[in-house]
From TrEMBL, chain B:
The chain crosses the membrane at residues 12-29, 35-58, 89-108, 113-133, 168-186, 207-225, 254-278, 298-317. InterPro entries: ABC_transp_permease, LivM-like. Keywords: Cell membrane, Membrane, Transmembrane, Transmembrane helix. It is a multi-pass membrane protein. It comes from Kumtagia ephedrae. GO terms for molecular function: branched-chain amino acid transmembrane transporter activity. One of its GO terms (cellular component) is plasma membrane. This is Branched-chain amino acid ABC transporter permease. It comes from the Bacteria. Its main location: membrane. It is found in: Cell membrane.
Length: 245, 329
């Protein structure tokens, strides 16, 4: 691992809301091609942490380096163009636009940036096909089932051709069958992108993650392979509320 | 229906509307002929307003300043410097472009109610400036552009813009150009981004779009279209007065667009036309039905606004699109 230059590094990253340190001196790095899960109890600062990475909120202190560039002060929309895509925890598709138009927005972004090629329509249909939504291209997003809206959210993330795809609780509210196909989709995405996955569903985390970072009260509690994390007494304590041995 | 079929159908519909307006030139009686020429120019004002209000979802209460920028931008050099209609129209456009760029840059730092108030205040500044520089603008009394100035000469043609038929055709050409422009914009990828900003600004930002730049571009296009309407109004109807910069002229385009249907390309024309005749006809009706009440046409405007917002928030074409004709742009 040490030989590979990380795709994303945060150094001493902090975010305070008043007196609350939601993210507290986090040093974190992800290698290219990795699927990294970020887990932790409710309120551990997971969403705040990835919001700092994608630029939705500004850090109180610390630095963020993406692909060798310091992006700490870069506006969110430029980070997206640099290759960081974020899919929202609360489904955030455009309900009044068709599924096609929802995906056309990120596709036209990559075309305008010179990162994509070919026709708009082909790019949109490719992203919809990968998520199994091609037949619903003309349906307004608000009329899709919840599971399909989650998939549309992922299709929009995919269509940005990200180098780092941040999935914020993607399986929340999905049925077991939908979760299975979702795991397959993320595996396929991980072939050409690095994935940062925030997830509560432990079987999904264990099935997908190469490495896991555990956050608790804004701090990194532990980091390691799924097996290491499963065996970690401190992690068990944070989740189960028992005293650490 | 495929996208190509929708596209053909849409352009055909708009071409038919323009053709119908062209045909009306030859059949309308004098009075209504004059009204329609005026309505087409004011509909351009409404289309400019609709671009920002309907598609981007930004409610401005100060668009009179852009109309006034075009009106005075064209009228002042024509009256004081003896410029021709073509040069006057160009300076009117330039004034609107410069003003909307500056106002957009300042006002777009706010959203929602604050945006409404900030645009209204800037518009009041423009209104008061027309009095401050009263020695040139003659304030409320206004300026009359002489018939001799209101001519357009090019390539051997000499058009008298004060003759009814020529004036009607000039208004129709401006209307058709701006209608085609708005249709092209809302069907373009830029138009898709504007609608995305209206629907969910944060999501649009996280898809890599510079939301501020998108709103600023829309404000400039909107302001410049409104200035084109103002400049055309000065040239075609020969009067430049402070009342066009008053708050009433910021409310009217909102009302026209709400009536016709916000975020529909043809709504502004329909709304302007109906509201014009409603106000025009209401004077006599009010006198006949409510003698002695002395209700002004502003009362009618206010009542129309309340009824619209309560019962038809999507306007006429918005309701038609929602219920029956989904492909309507």
């Amino acid at each position: 691992m040490a030989a590979v230059t990380p795709l994303l590094t945060t150094t001493d990253l902090c975010k305070a809301f008043g007196g609350l340190r939601a993210v507290d001196h986090v040093d974190f790095s992800v290698a290219p091609g990795e699927v990294r899960a970020v887990i932790g109890p409710n309120g551990a600062g997971k969403t705040t942490f990835v919001s700092l990475v994608c630029g939705r909120i500004a850090p109180t202190s610390g630095t963020i380096v993406f692909d060798g560039r310091d992006i700490t002060a870069m506006p969110a929309h430029e980070r997206v163009r640099a290759g960081i895509a974020y899919t929202f925890q609360i489904t955030s598709v455009f309900p009044n636009l068709t599924a096609f138009d929802n995906v056309a927005l990120p596709v036209q972004r990559t075309l305008a940036d010179g990162r994509g090629s070919g026709r708009l329509r082909d790019g949109v249909m490719a992203a919809l096909s990968r998520t199994g939504l091609a037949a619903r291209a003309g349906t307004p997003a608000g009329a899709l089932s919840y599971g399909h809206q989650r998939l549309l959210e992922v299709a929009m993330g995919l269509a940005l051709k990200p180098r780092l795809l941040i999935l914020d609780e993607p399986t929340q509210g999905l049925s077991d069958g939908e979760i299975d196909s979702f795991v397959g989709l993320v595996r396929e995405i991980a072939r050409d992108a690095t994935v940062l996955l925030i997830e509560h569903n432990m079987p999904v985390v264990m099935a997908l993650a190469d490495r896991i970072t555990v956050l608790d009260a804004g701090k990194v509690l532990a980091e390691g392979t799924p097996d290491e994390i499963r065996a970690n007494a401190q992690v068990q304590a944070a989740y189960l509320g028992t005293e650490a041995a | 229906m495929t996208r190509e079929e929708t596209s053909i159908r849409t352009w055909l519909l708009h071409a038919l509307v323009v053709a119908a307006l062209f045909a009306l030139n030859f059949v309308l009686p004098d009075y209504h002929h004059g009204v329609l020429a005026r309505v087409m120019v004011l509909a351009v004002f409404a289309m400019g307003y609709n671009l920002l209000f309907g598609y981007v979802g930004l409610l401005s209460l100060g668009h009179a300043m852009f109309f006034a920028a075009g009106l005075y931008g064209a009228g002042l050099p024509m009256v004081h410097l003896g410029w021709g209609a073509g040069a006057g129209f160009a300076t009117g456009l330039a004034a609107g472009l410069a003003l909307s760029l500056a106002i957009g840059f300042l006002a777009l730092r706010t959203t929602g109610v604050a945006f409404m108030i900030v645009t209204m205040m800037f518009s009041q500044v423009v209104y008061l400036l027309t009095f401050y520089f009263g020695s040139w603008t003659r304030g409320d009394e206004g300026l009359v552009i002489q018939q001799a100035e209101r001519r357009l000469s090019f390539a051997g043609f000499d058009l008298d813009l004060t003759s009814p038929a020529t004036r009607y055709m000039a208004a129709l050409i401006l209307f058709a150009v701006v209608l085609a422009l708005t249709l092209a914009i809302v069907r373009s990828s830029f138009g898709r981004v504007l609608v995305a900003i209206r629907e969910n600004e944060e999501r649009t930002r996280m898809l890599g779009f510079d939301v501020f730049a998108g709103k600023l571009a829309a404000t400039v296009v909107s302001g410049t279209i409104c200035a084109a309407a103002g400049a055309a109004y000065a040239i075609l109807f020969g009067y430049v007065g402070a009342s066009f910069a008053s708050v009433q002229y910021s409310i009217l385009p909102l009302l026209w667009v709400l009536l016709g249907g916000a975020a529909t390309t043809l709504g502004p024309l329909l709304g302007t036309l109906l509201m014009y005749y409603l106000i025009d006809g209401s004077g006599d009706l009010l006198k006949a039905w409510l003698p002695g009440w002395n209700v002004s046409h502003l009362g009618i405007v206010g009542l129309a606004l309340v009824v619209l917002v309560l019962f038809f928030p999507r306007g006429i074409l918005g309701t038609i699109r929602g219920r029956w004709v989904r492909w309507l742009p």
